[in-house]
Design the sequence.
């Protein structure tokens, strides 16, 4: 079918002056519709023309090889509808090219987020059907009210949730596809009409400054893929960090990828309602990358190899790795290691606590006042605790209860912890077990002392000013240098290498020395974690001020 696409574009605009020639994300607004229309010429018999009364607009259009139709003055006033404008353009092109079009498409230049694939699919839908006219629309069900005979009246029969309401289609400025015979000076819509539904982010029709800002945000949106892992051996820290960042990246297109054996991680991501792709191996992941085409890939899988990084660099525009000390790290655009303190910042490496992504709940919670008397001790070893340090401290708590019967021990156990059936609340010994607590910060803010592992939790405890005894889960975790006396922690090394008597005596000593705990708290609260999330977000999006 021979098709004419007409893009109407006046030079005047009252709400946003010179709207159609203004630069949006690097190019004039009208160029988006021109590029979409020209892309159709690759597979369809399409002519493209712009009807305008403006010389500057005409110059932009001609530069891109598109026909410019000079719109008569009488068709360029505020009161004129598009119908006579489109009719004038069609008859002009048919006369000039000595042809007769089968289909006429009106494409507004105020819909820059509309994708060329969507227009192509709509045209194919129209050509397969017997409809006279197909109009782009967005389905926006909503309870609404109208004015009838001077009275406000409801436009619905029954109050329902929006997802249960019948369709309510709102026209967008994206496109109107119609048969040539339907185009007259007074109309473009035939008797048989249908809707081609388009997603909300493609349906914005720029009419106000708010629309403009929204479109800019949509056009700047990135496809961000988080490759992460969560299993008993590694714990849940990687998953929690990626989720924290994903929640912060509102407005971007987020997708998670994890290995099939990341069973506990899969459960947590599914609970978040983010899209999740499960892979079997690296070949499977390469197929995913090729299909999804992420703008940014975030690797939170520990050390990478040169082979892996060479592969992912073929498909992702930007790559950011966390806690990567492998041979592949040098091929990332940025490597973020908040748990290490190397001091010197190399070409792509960002080290230290200033890049720790603390969860929002800790930014909202306030540390309680310091108490010389220890009343509450928190025991927390992460979401999985693969070394079962929780079990050991359960026994330690019973021993400590003999000398300190009024101290309450609060065990914060993750949902992935494998021995929950053995760690039970024991009020007689003042032991309270909280499984998968929804707000850990609340317990930490009221704690006078804590026992924890050497991972990300130490930063959270520091933000709440809780003096802590630290036991590392493994050798790698023991390399995290933040949890030292210089930052308010008593570090006893790798947990499995430390005996219970030393743990008990250390906790007793801290209970009995409030001046030591006060100094530890002072050192902890000197750290400011409030900007860590923002620093990492800027690194991911590649808009970090190096002096920040």
Sequence:
């Amino acid at each position: 079918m021979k098709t004419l696409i007409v893009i109407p574009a006046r030079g005047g605009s009252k709400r946003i002056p010179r709207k159609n020639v203004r630069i949006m994300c690097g190019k004039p607004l009208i160029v988006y519709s021109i590029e979409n229309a020209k892309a159709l010429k690759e597979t369809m018999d399409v002519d493209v023309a712009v009807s305008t009364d403006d010389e500057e607009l005409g110059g932009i259009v001609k530069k891109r090889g598109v026909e410019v139709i000079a719109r008569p003055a009488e068709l360029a006033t505020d009161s004129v509808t598009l119908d006579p404008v489109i009719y004038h353009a069609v008859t002009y092109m048919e006369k000039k090219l000595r042809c007769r079009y089968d289909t006429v498409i009106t494409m507004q230049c105020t819909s820059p987020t509309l994708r060329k694939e969507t227009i192509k699919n709509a045209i194919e839908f129209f050509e397969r059907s017997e409809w006279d006219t197909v109009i782009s629309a967005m389905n926006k069900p909503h309870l609404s009210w109208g004015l009838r005979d001077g009275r406000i009246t409801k436009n619905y029969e029954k109050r329902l949730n929006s997802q249960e309401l019948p369709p309510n289609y709102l026209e967008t400025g994206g496109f109107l596809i119609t048969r040539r015979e339907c185009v007259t000076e007074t109309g473009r819509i035939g008797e048989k009409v249908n809707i081609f539904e388009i997603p909300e982010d493609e349906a914005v029709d720029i009419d106000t400054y708010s629309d403009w800002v929204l479109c800019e945000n949509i056009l700047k949106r990135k496809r961000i893929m988080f490759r992460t892992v969560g299993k008993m051996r590694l714990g849940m820290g990687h998953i929690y960090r990626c989720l924290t960042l994903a929640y912060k990246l509102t407005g971007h297109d987020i997708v998670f990828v994890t290995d099939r054996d990341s069973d506990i991680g899969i459960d947590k991501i599914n609970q978040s309602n983010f899209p999740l792709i499960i892979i079997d191996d690296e070949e499977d992941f390469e197929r995913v990358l090729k299909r999804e085409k992420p703008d940014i890939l975030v690797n939170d899988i520990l050390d990478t190899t040169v082979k892996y990084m060479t592969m992912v660099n073929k498909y992702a525009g930007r790559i950011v790795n966390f806690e990567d000390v492998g041979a592949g790290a040098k091929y990332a655009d940025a490597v973020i290691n908040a748990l290490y303190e190397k001091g010197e910042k190399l070409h792509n490496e960002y080290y230290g606590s200033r890049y720790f992504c603390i969860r929002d709940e800790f930014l909202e919670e306030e540390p309680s006042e310091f108490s010389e008397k220890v009343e509450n001790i928190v025991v927390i070893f992460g979401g999985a605790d693969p070394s079962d340090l929780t079990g050991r401290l359960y026994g330690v708590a019973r021993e400590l209860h003999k000398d300190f019967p009024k101290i309450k021990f609060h065990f914060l156990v993750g949902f992935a912890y494998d021995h929950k059936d053995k760690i039970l609340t024991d009020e007689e010994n003042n032991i309270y077990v909280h499984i998968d607590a929804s707000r850990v910060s609340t317990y930490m803010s009221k704690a006078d002392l804590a026992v924890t592992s050497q991972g990300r939790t130490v930063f959270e405890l520091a933000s709440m000013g809780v003096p802590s005894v630290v036991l590392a889960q493994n050798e790698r975790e023991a390399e995290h240098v933040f949890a030292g006396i210089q930052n308010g922690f008593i570090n006893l090394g790798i947990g499995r290498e430390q005996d219970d008597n030393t743990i008990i005596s250390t906790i007793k000593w801290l209970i009995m020395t409030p001046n030591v705990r006060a100094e530890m708290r002072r050192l902890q609260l000197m750290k400011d974690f409030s900007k860590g999330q923002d620093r990492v977000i800027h690194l991911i999006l590649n808009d970090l001020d190096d002096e920040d």
The radius of gyration is 31 Å. Residues 365-525 form a domain with the Rossmann fold fold (CATH 3.40.50.2000).
